[in-house]
């Protein structure tokens, strides 16, 4: 099967990178008001905010393309293939959906229902109700437990989930959080905003985010290697040192914890612990092109199985009406499988489908590809989730370092962690805090966020308003 070489992927990705000669607010010298590290969703959102305030920034990106964990690959299948984020969660509230450009980008609602396979047949209505009721009971039990103490979600699960237990554990754990429920903080889980309604972007979620970076200058292939805050801020890169008054760092928790950027003075131990306890889970797409709609799916059908154990997956079929099907593997099983390499992942996906639909499916599989996010050196995993007892780590990362460095990114959001929307909002909030520090912006909360709050249903609004000031200004 033709596979994507790194070279062709990078070439395809570079086509997405928007880098006009002189982007809005971009500093041309080695001095800037703000250095932003990382051009994923959080970095792009921060750069847009800083540019809108008329401040000079330098946006550094280690890769030779923008988007980070939200990138659309047009090369492998000749159609939009989101290698990272694909679901636009709660589109009515998602900060990126209201910014969608009018031309060339189409966002449409995801089907509301899911299918469940029991062996070689679909679950009947009563069985589906049992599955959904088991999920609802498990979710409620975790929320109840979280009100008392921050324990592992697994500890809070009801004992009577019966033979739906493995499927419920997969949906709430690996599929939802990238980790097994034993490794997930009940408070983190309970605080995460409901993600019931979803949307998709026909051109790819990565293409949507790239379209929002239009006019923003990015220094590609320029990793930050060291950040010194002893006197203002200096950021070292292999292409030179940049002096600034503040920095916004949007690099993933695992990439920071692995020591990719040297901080001087060293980060405090509570910050280092926070990065370690918000480690990224494992989540990968095994993308299969299935010819002639051999399995009779509708566009964007989401299929789970009534699993007998943790060796399971989910499938998003006929992505945006195409032949592309994504078999989703996650958690410990997905991590171990991805460690065996792409061929093993594709073999698993094909065998899994044979188990659910019969041997003929193999004949219909054409091209394939599998992501391996744990092995991407600039991410080192999929998305963050707090270890039991460590939900508070997200607030620790909201505190500025030496009054000069702000962290942003999906991990730095209490309710939308693990999502593009959360990364976007955290980038905006960090930018607002920096602008206040630079004297460029008056309080209070950004207008976009206010608009979001007004549209929140009561229950979610309560949660949202309970979120404290995300970035706290502290005197230097
Ligand atoms: C397989 C997968 C599926 C997902 N599915 C969904 C989904 O359906 N919906 C959803 O909302 N979210 C999903 N997510 C999560 C979502 O992709 C992330 O939450 C979001 O994209 C993170 O954005 P970010 O800006 O915080 O970080 P990133 O996107 O990781 O951006 C950080 C940037 O920093 C760069 N960088 C790293 N080190 C350096 C350095 N030293 N110097 C300069 N630059 C550096 C990186 O290259 C990267 O571009 C998924 C993630 C994965 C991996």
Structure description:
- β10 and β11 form a beta hairpin.
- Strands 1, 2, 10, 11, 12, 13 and 19 form a seven-stranded mixed sheet that branches. Strands 8-7-15-16-17-14-18 form a seven-stranded mixed sheet.
- α2 runs parallel beside α14 (420-438).
- The protein has helices at 6-16, 41-52, 125-148, 153-156, 165-177, 186-191, 205-211, 253-257, 269-277, 331-339, 342-357, 361-364, 393-398, 420-438, 447-455, 458-466; strands at residues 31-37, 57-60, 72-73, 81-82, 88-89, 107-109, 115-118, 121-122, 198-201, 226-228, 233-237, 240-249, 262-264, 283-290, 301-305, 314-317, 324-330, 365-370, 405-407.
- The longest helix has 24 residues, at 125-148.
- It is 34% helix and 18% strand.
- The chain contains 16 helices and 19 strands.
- It has 476 residues and is an alpha/beta fold.
- The relative contact order is 0.17.
- The structure holds flavin-adenine dinucleotide.
- The site of flavin-adenine dinucleotide has 43 residues, from α2, β14 and α14.
Bound compounds:
flavin-adenine dinucleotide
Low-confidence stretches: 1-22, 443-476
Question: Count of DSSP E strands?
Answer: 19
Reported for the largest beta sheet, the result is: 7 strands, mixed
Helix content: 25-40%
**Distinct helical segment count:** 16
The rounded Rg comes to 22 Å
Coarse shape: globular
Average predicted confidence as pLDDT? 88
Summed up:
This protein is 34% helix and 18% strand. The protein has 476 residues and is of the alpha/beta class. A hairpin with a 6-residue loop joins β16 (314-317) and β17.
């Amino acid at each position: 099967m033709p596979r994507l070489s790194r070279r062709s992927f990078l070439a395809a990705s570079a086509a997405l990178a928007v880098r006009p000669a002189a982007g809005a607010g971009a500093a041309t010298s080695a001095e800037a008001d703000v250095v932003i590290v990382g051009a994923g969703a959080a970095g792009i959102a921060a750069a847009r905010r800083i540019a809108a305030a008329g401040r000079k920034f330098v946006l550094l990106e280690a890769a030779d393309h923008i988007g980070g964990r939200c990138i659309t690959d047009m090369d492998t299948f000749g159609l939009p293939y989101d290698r990272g984020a694909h679901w636009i969660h709660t589109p009515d509230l998602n900060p990126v959906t209201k910014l969608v450009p009018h031309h060339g980008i189409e966002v449409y609602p995801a089907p509301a229902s899911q299918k469940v396979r029991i062996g070689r047949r679909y679950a009947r209505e009563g069985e589906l109700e049992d599955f959904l009721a088991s999920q609802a009971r498990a979710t409620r039990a975790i929320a109840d437990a979280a009100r008392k103490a921050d324990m592992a979600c697994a500890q809070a699960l009801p004992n009577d989930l019966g033979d739906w237990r493995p499927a419920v554990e997969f949906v709430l754990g690996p599929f939802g959080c990238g980790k097994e429920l034993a490794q997930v903080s009940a408070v983190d889980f309970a605080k995460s905003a409901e993600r019931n309604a979803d949307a998709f972007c026909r051109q790819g979620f990565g293409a949507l985010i790239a379209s929002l970076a239009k006019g923003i200058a990015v220094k590609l292939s320029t990793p930050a290697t060291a950040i010194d805050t002893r006197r203002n801020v200096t950021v070292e890169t292999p292409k030179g040192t940049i002096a600034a008054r503040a920095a916004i760092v949007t690099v993933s928790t695992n990439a920071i914890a692995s020591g990719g950027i040297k901080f001087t003075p060293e980060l405090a131990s509570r910050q280092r612990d926070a990065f370690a306890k918000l480690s990224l889970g494992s989540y990968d797409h095994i993308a299969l092109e299935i010819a002639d709609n051999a399995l009779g799916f509708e566009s964007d059908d989401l299929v789970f199985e009534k699993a007998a154990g943790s060796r399971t997956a989910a499938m998003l079929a006929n992505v945006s009406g195409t032949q592309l099907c994504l078999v989703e593997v996650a958690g410990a099983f997905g991590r171990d499988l991805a460690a065996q390499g792409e061929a093993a992942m594709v073999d698993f996906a094909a065998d899994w489908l044979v188990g659910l639909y019969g041997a003929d499916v193999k004949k219909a599989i054409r091209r394939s590809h599998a992501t391996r996010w744990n092995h991407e050196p600039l991410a080192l995993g999929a998305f963050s989730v707090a270890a039991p007892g460590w939900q508070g780590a997200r607030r620790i990362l909201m505190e500025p370092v030496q009054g000069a460095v702000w962290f942003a990114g999906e991990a730095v959001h209490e309710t939308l962690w693990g999502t593009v929307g959360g990364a976007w909002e955290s980038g905006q909030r960090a930018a607002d805090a920096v602008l206040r520090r630079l004297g460029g912006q008056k309080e209070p909360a950004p207008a976009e966020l206010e608009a979001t709050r007004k549209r929140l249903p009561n229950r979610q609004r309560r949660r949202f308003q309970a979120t404290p000031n995300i970035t706290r200004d502290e005197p230097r």
